[in-house]
Amino acid sequence: MLLAFSCSYSHSSDFIYGSTGNAASAGLSWVMSGVLPQQAGLTVSGVIYRYTALKNAADDMLVHVQNENAAGNGYIFRETDDWSGLPGNTINKLVSVDNIPIGFWGDGSIQVDGTGQVSDPSVVYTYKYDPCFNPQSNPSCPGYQVPLPDQEGPDLDSYYALDDEAVLKATEETDPDLYDRDMKKRTALEKANDSRLQKGLAASNNALNISSDVAQAFMMSAMANEQRFGPYYEQKIAGGVYAEAVTLPVSDLPDSNKGLRNNLAQQLLYEKMVDLQYK
User: Fold this and answer.
1) Phi-psi group of 168: left, alpha or beta (phi > 0 → left; psi -120 to 50 → alpha; rest → beta)
2) Which residues of the chain have pLDDT under 50?
């Protein structure tokens, strides 16, 4: 059974299955963060352990292979072997657990209660995880989204031009006469632009009025040249009364023998069906 888990990991469906090394290689206690791969969504499905109990057959001895509950009190895993009244021996054991998430697995240890000791311990954890548990971990994962670039730019010192010493100095040395002259030029230019704008608007309005008058005159001319249909209405087509040329002889038409036979056959078929229902 240990050989079945000797490989570091294997692929099956969308999960990666694997097993750890010997967590108890350095002693009878270990830290799980250095044992299990720190993968998001990883769960532990089993614990495989082996050790040799050194004791006298008459002594009482309990051996606990355990992991603390990292999310609460007590233990998330604890398997106890009772060696009381038994001689020392080597035990190999596989304990299945119900895919407990990695966040619950606290520090592990092998605890001995009673008289005796443990040698050559080996504790291996089997696990599985989905490499795309977090879709952003790999661009090939379903649901992966291209990360947006960092929106934060470099820190820049704010600059207010009116507080600049050179700007303040230039403002203080401005000649009032030059300023007034520039203002007068700017005012005159604005007035000239307003005048040209008003002339342009007046010209556009006149053009619209002229085009409107031309359109109305064209419509009146078209209405005056309307075709007169009176002469067509006064025309008459020569004609008269068309008498019916086909006449039928006034006499009683004989019954159709073919229809009579058909009706008789249907009547016979109906009576036969009724007789079959009664029978």
Assistant:
1) alpha
2) 1-13
pLDDT digits (tens, 9 = 90+) for 214-236: 677 777 766 665 556 666 666 77
Closest Cα to residue 52, out of 88, 87, 86, 85? 88
For the chain, how big is the Rg over CA atoms in Å? 54
| Cα separation values, 83 from 35, 47, 56, 62, Å | 28, 20, 10, 6
Burial class for 213, CB neighbours closer than 10 Å (0-12, 13-18, 19+):
exposed
DSSP single-letter state for residue 148: P
For the chain, the maximum distance between any two Cα atoms, rounded to a whole number of angstroms, is 143
Cα angle 159-162-164, degrees, rounded to a multiple of 5: 65
Tens of pLDDT, residue by residue over 176-199, are 555 566 667 677 777 777 777 777
The residue assigned the tokens 């309005």 is: 205
Q: Where are the alpha helices (DSSP H) in 14-77?
A: none
Residue 53's nearest CA partner among 80, 21, 19 is: 80
